[in-house]
Records
---
Amino acid sequence: MPKPDSLQGSLELLVLKILARRAPLHGYAIMTAIEQISSEVLRVEEGSLYPALHRMEEAGWIGAAWGTTDAGRKARVYSLTPEGRKQLDAQESRWNAVTAAVNHVLRMA
Amino acid sequence: MSLWTRIVNAFGGDRLNREIDEEMRLHIEEAVASGRSEEEARRAFGNLLLTRERSRDARVMGWLEGLVSDVRFGVRQIRKHKAVSASAALSLALAVGSSTAAFRLIDAMLLRPLPVKNPESLHYLAYTFPDQAGKPQEGDSFSYPLFLQLGETVKGDAELLAISYAYPVDLTFGSDAEMERAPRQYVSGNVFPTFGLRPALGRLLGPDDNLKPGAHPVAVLSYDYWSSRFGRDPGVLGRKFRIGEQVYEVVGVGPEGFTGTETGVITGVFVPTMMNQRAIGSVNWSWFRTWVRPRPGQALEPLRERLQTAFTNHRREMIKGFESNLPRQSADAWVRSKLTFQPASAGASRAQREYARALAVLGALVTLVLLIACANVANLMMAQTAGRAREMALRVSIGAGKWRLIQLVLVESAMLAATATLLGGAFAWWAAPWVMSRVNPPDQPLQLVLPADWRVLGFAAALSVVVTLLFGLAPALRASHVQPAYALKGGDGGRSRLRLIHVLAAGQVAFCFVVHFSAGLFVDTFQRITHQPLGFNPQRLALVEVSVKNGKQVTGEAWRQVADTLRTTPGVESAAMCSWPLMSGNAWTGTIRMPGKGPEAVEAFYLAVDPGFIPTMGIALKQGRNLNEADKAEGGGAAVVSEAFVRRYFGGGRAVGRTFERLSREHAVRYEVVGVVADVRYRSLRDPLQPVVFVPGDASGTFAVRTAGADPLAMAPALRTAISQARPDFRVSNTYTQQMLVDKWSIRERLLATLSVFFAAVAMALAGIGLYGVLNYSVQMRTRELGIRMALGASARHVGARVMARIGVVFAVGAAAGLAGGLSSERAIGTLLYAAHVSDPGALAVPLAVVGATALIASIPPLLRAIRIDPARTLRAE
């Protein structure tokens, strides 16, 4: 069983968002991108990232191919599929709705 | 896409693992390159193996991966037990192949719908009437005037079609020397349109081709005839051919796959009913079947009632005027014959009627053999899974679910079944046409289209599934009930497994008995029917059918001239003339009246012959004299009768000099008995011996020629030459032997006897293997027990008796069940038997002895093994 993780629900959303902006990226680059953009607030664990990537690949949200990095190293790079873009929109709006609701509760309680 | 990759990944497990590992490795490299320490990067991954498994689960179709590994494991198991697996696969292949071959025949003969529009709505009319012995007989031939009357009756509610029997006729596309034979069917003009058929070439026959008698000399060839005779040459349109004196023009070719309506005969040419000029206007000439296509939604019974009324009225009208010449009862029964609708979706033919039951019985025998084979394989598999109890227990204890175990065993059985189906399919491919080629009467061999299409393939595939379930399920369920703690400790739940195995073995004995029992009856029937006294000697007898060119009338003198020429031909011992040969299937029957009495209930059979016939045929003269040249009085005179005739009408005793009358429609003909001959078979081998009358006659069509050489057909060319030299206007239309005619009546019996003996042999072999396996297994299971008994002083005889007691019970139960099955089979096979009965003690004793001997032989090796158990070694091994 995947261990409970604060990022569990949002990891997929983050990966989809990153890939929507900067595809194609390999696993390590996705991880560092999330860390950098969140100013190192969000840390992705490798042990969670790869199973998530492979799950999303099988679901058809992202595609994978063997390519080379900027530094010329071999890597498996991921990019968003049209299906994944739809998924991103759906998850993003759900996330916004949930956080808005949570904020509302925090303010009003 | 993702489904596909998951399926692919299930097959390429290793490649997938490597790929995931590679990605992880590159990730760590990347981390190191960006300045992290390798150790730290590695630690960040946590459990690498776990991560890999989680990734893997996302990318693999789990159950398929399991299935693939089961198949690999199954292959290994099968390879490990080569001998057992091979014998299982082979015995199954034989059984599956026989079943598929039987299905091919049954399907082609009885089930396959005609390739016409809505075949399921087609029926043909039949009527039942009691024959002389009071047994119901079925008739289905109609006259054209009656057909028109019936059509009028149901106009608008049903379409009636006239389709004649498919009899082979002599026809030629060139000169007389190029005569050939092809089955012809007369069809009414509405047949092709109602069937919704489209021509492959030219046009088909329509209503306009069937208006005036003799005015439509056009013909349509069947696609098969066009292919085999003309190589599908489109130039065939407009060609002329001649049947008798009538010249026809080919106007079209029927659609591919349509071989006529007489299943078992591939029709060559279709011609309009109006071209049967002699018959078309006559109420006395019944020569075709009446087919019915009801209007959609029209109920059958009201239709039948209307047709019945018209039919009965017609018959009542017909019988007026000569009622007094018929026995009262048979006249009534004839008028009141019941009309029925017979389903005709698969065609209508005599061959279907003759072979339906025989094919059904063969199908049943084949099914029993299949069940025996299945029980065999199930027992083998069960014994094998018992040997694997520990392995199964291990699987359960490391977390394999019940379904996983069932799947494992079922996969193995499916692989066996698939192998057997492939081998069996190859067998069926060869066997079905071979069986059909055995059904080959001289004048009309059975012709069936035997396609290997989706019906046959579907049957084989379905059979494969059923077989898998039949022999795979029991071992699979057994395996799934394994108790790990118990099995791993070394004990096993052998008792209930052994019970199931014994039940299956008893079933095998029962089925084997039934197969042997019916085979015995069929062999007995065949022997009785072929060893019946014929009353004549069929050896070295050639039969030459002769017709006169241009159908012109010739005198009896011309026929006698030909007979004389044949008698002087070298190699001929004697020659004679008859209107048709004995046992040809033709019959001339007439009601008999003794002087001063009423018509007799039983008809006599007549044959017009010349004086040479009785000696040439080798028929024994019992009283009086043979016919002679002076006996040729027209309309009565001298007659030679058979002993059955004397028994039936004169009550035995001396018959020479007595007189009797033959009643025909119009008048009575008086005969005087001049001689009595031994009983002869007139029509078939199955009919009881009929009263036969030989009368002198000029009407001749066949020469019976006794040759000096052993092979009468070797004389055929010489006879042909002699005939055309004697009378250039005579033509030989067919040559065969008397033996062929005799054999024709036992083709079905020979086929049944041959095939059932084959199945009996297969059943015996399979059951023997099965019993051997069962006993061997039970000795193996009881080695410890028997060892202890021997250590305690039990003698070898005692141990042997204990072992044999078990198999004795299995055999007794199986034989009792088989006996009961055999005795109750009378209804199913009774009509196929001749003078053989299911309750005959001999019929029961022989199969009992054979199956018993099989069981005995099969139990010798395990028995030896049991009494050779070394107690010391057995106990040490524990």
---
Amino acid sequence: MSLDSHIPSGPMAMKWSKHKQDSKLINPKNKRKFTVLVVGSGLAGSSAAATLSELGYKVKCFCFQDSARRAHSIAAQGGINAAKNYQNDGDSVHRLFYDTVKGGDFRARESNVHRLAEVSVNIIDQCVAQGVPFAREYGGMLANRSFGGAQVSRTFYARGQTGQQLLLGAYSALNKEIAAGGVQMYPRTEMLDVVTVDGHAKGIITRNLVTGKIESHAGDAVLLCTGGYGNVFYLSTNAMGCNVTATWRAHKKGAYFANPCYTQIHPTCIPVSGDYQSKLTLMSESLRNDGRIWVPKKAADIGKPPAQIPESDRDYFLERKYPSFGNLAPRDISSRTAKEVCDEGRGVGPGGRGVYLDFAEAIGQFGQKTIAERYGNLFAMYEKITGEDGYKQPMRIYPAVHYTMGGLWVDYNLMSNLPGLHVLGEANFSDHGANRLGASALMQGLADGYFVIPTTIANYLVHQKPGSVTAEHPEFKKALEVCTAQTKGFLNSKGKRSVDSFHRELGLLVWDKCGMARDRAGLTEALKRIPELREEFRTNVVVPGSGEACNPELEKAGRVADFMEFAELLCLDALNREESCGGHFRTEHQYPDGEAKRDDENFSYAAAWGYTGDFAKPTLNKEPLTFEEVHLAVRSYK
Amino acid sequence: MSAVFDSFSRFYASSIGKKILVALTGLMLIGFVFGHLVGNLLIFAGQDAINEYGHLLQTALHGGGVWIARVGLLAAVLIHVVATVSLTKQNNAARPDKYGQHKAQVSSKSSHTMILSGLTILAFVVYHLLHYTVRIGNSFNSDAYKIDLHGEKVHNVYKMVIDGFSWAPASLFYLIAMALLSSHLSHGFSSLFQTLGISTDKSEPVFKKAGYAFAGLIFAGNAAIVLSIWLFGYGR
Amino acid sequence: MSQLNLHLKVWRQNAGQPGHFQDIEAPEIPDHASFLEMMDIVNERLISKGQEPVAFDHDCREGICGMCSMQINGVPHGPEKATTTCQLHMRKFRTGDTIWVEPFRAKAFPVIKDLVVDRGAFDRIQQAGGFISVRTGAPQDANALPIGKVVADAAMDAAACIGCGACVAACKNASAMLFVSAKAGQLNVLPQGQPEKDRRTLGMVRQMDKEGFGNCTNQYECEAACPKEISVRWITKLNRDYAVAAVKEALGNTPKVAGGGD
């Protein structure tokens, strides 16, 4: 099947304006006859639900957390980019667009990225009007900082909790609409399946996580705003509840899953301390501005207290390999190099998976007070988690999975190939290509929810008869039965192993074979192991408790079952993509200096995988990527 | 009119509204407690001084002044008590299932016992009024307690107080009540500034210290009267 | 890394039924584990013994989502200052300790299961006015309204609230004043929040009362328990804002009575 991305014609800078002009309008009287189901209440979900309700649509919004405010967007620390050029440092929509395409290693769709850069400025206006307390200067103007190596200061921030503040803004807009009666909110409700009628997404099946009741909800369109799949690795910086279930079940109903192998690793996380570890904690990358990263030169020294290792026996490997960028080398390069030195047996800390981030020199130069002013909260967090004092001894860091660029394939209207099914935010694949720049995730979530979908959804709805499908339709009954049977299946399984033990095993396998660096042999092995593990899960998992009440083990079982299936597609995609780009690094494809080697001739496409019923043999649909504005070039950070 | 009344009833029905009334009436009662102490300390200035003061209170505004004060105080006490009892009931209802373990980290014992200290003080006030104002169960209304002052026959407050505190059980009860009153004030004094929306980070510690000082003063002053008579035989 | 042997007293309850404390032995707990990871280990062992694991709320495990709760040894989020349960680590305990683990208790937070409570009341309070009514697409340029750094920082202080409910759990009256005051205060202090200030204040306070929370008795246990160290000065401000709004409502020309709790 050919993929039509519905990119508007005309010059890049005019595409979105033109598309808005050409988009259909729906009569206000008719809008309230349409019901839109929004799954997820993070930045994309809350903002979309609130804005669609403002426009007059009837909205039902679902989240598995106990409140919409707790969606994982809340955990973003750094900031949000916008091409405001408040600093007069030469920023512009075009420059943000350019940086994002280049940062994505030329694997994103140009037109989407340009639109993202255009609406970025409106996001800031919107958030300020809602009362989001961005950092300000004494004169009362908004403050900006440079982030993630950008050459302009375009990042807006709210202390170390920009994600929480933006989400609270969107959540307040959502609350306004709930109070006005336009949005019906379903917290502690997890989506189990998409229901399709005549090939269109017309509803969802949910499980009430308090009563256990499995229910049908019919609508005229479905919006998945359900985040990324980073927890396929078990250990990640994602929240414990983040899962692939919504997007994976949609995929199994026909939606294409695009570029799952694009996963982003964040270099400055606190390392794993033992096998009980449940999640990884990210520390701001800004630490690399003053900290020096090193490991012992000799593997024999890894057990020694760092203070006893003389300068001559230390290997400042980033400074050595990348002299001009040094400790500020890009995320993927820093991460990979850390992995390499650990693979050589020179990693420090429990399990040998860690490198030192040393502030001794900076403290010597600027004094502890200055360092504490800059990073005090991060040192405190590190101390809380590890019990070690980063001022007295080097911190230990290790990369961890942080964000996933892949997701369900969508066209310019954010609609998947399954008519009616729209996908927003991290859940879709569209804007970040193979690598996401810092402070761009929040921008994309809010752009999709506040400004894109409210316009583009009409292009689908205008062709629909509102309320044409109700939850009484036989397709709902069928889907409901499948979900009920699956739930019963978990509860009746008479196995021995807990859900978590499977999740942990799967995560280790995927991290090992399809993590920071991948190769054919490892991926092939993973593709052999995953089905075996899945089979063991099916027969040997144990899920205590009942299906008719709050049962966290049952919730996890459903999510892990989907990760077990999805992991195979992730590895297949990584195996198929015989090149290195952004967050996807194949050790076979690198320049002699270790730089990622793209293959633009053969792989300048988005890989959109279709479900066939056989996990090992999905169909591959290619959306060719063309670059009119930004010229293909090799990244170099030497 | 009814709009205003509705608003008032909504104000009283709300958590903050009730608390503001408690704070305002508390402020009135604090003023009263202070004035009352200052007046009573006149006992140390001799018989005539306190009798003159007592007579002045009785005859101000042709005898109306004392009634205005009494009605005002009664209203303040009523509002203070009714509102706090109602708040306490709501507070108890707000946590029907108690904790197995519940640790207070920063709050004082006094703040946890406001309703107990308050109700005991209320009982004490009733006793105190019967004792020295209505004078039931004693002979303080008899002619033995009339005295000539500047040619006028007035009530001999001095003798009444001396005789009253010569009886140990009464003195003991007064002391206990004053201790509870000062405990009540130690939280209530600074608390009212918070409820009225006045406290700031800078002023709060000042209000706290002032509250402790005031509570100490009220206890020390009143206890001095009781103890000097009961134990040290002042005026006997 | 050393290991701890602990005795847990964990509250077990199904919705609508009476609950009880269950004694659970938790030997060999790594002191590097977080409190929630300790609970994970305990649950893993319960599952292997064929028993039902302890249900508890958690999600981000980095102290920002506000999902985790638990009254630990009588204190919300445990003994460590300015720390959520997920960021509390076992090295703060000693081997041999008995640890009481209970749900946040309040009439307005009914128990769903074991340590999981329903904090939907917080959402409903915010729906009663915790927002600025601005339509998407309507606003002016963000820098058209200068906001002094002092005011912006104050709003940020209040906005740091993660809505976990520790303030309610710590208060002897199960009062929600710290939460409500932080949420109302963030918007009431900003210029954008002025047009709806009175309406917001009245609406949120009335909804708070309606939900069955207790009253503030100025003991500041909430502030001591708050993982984000929200100041009780926000309560001072809410008291003041409420008094002003109520007087204006009674005497002024407010066209319509604020909603919430009606």
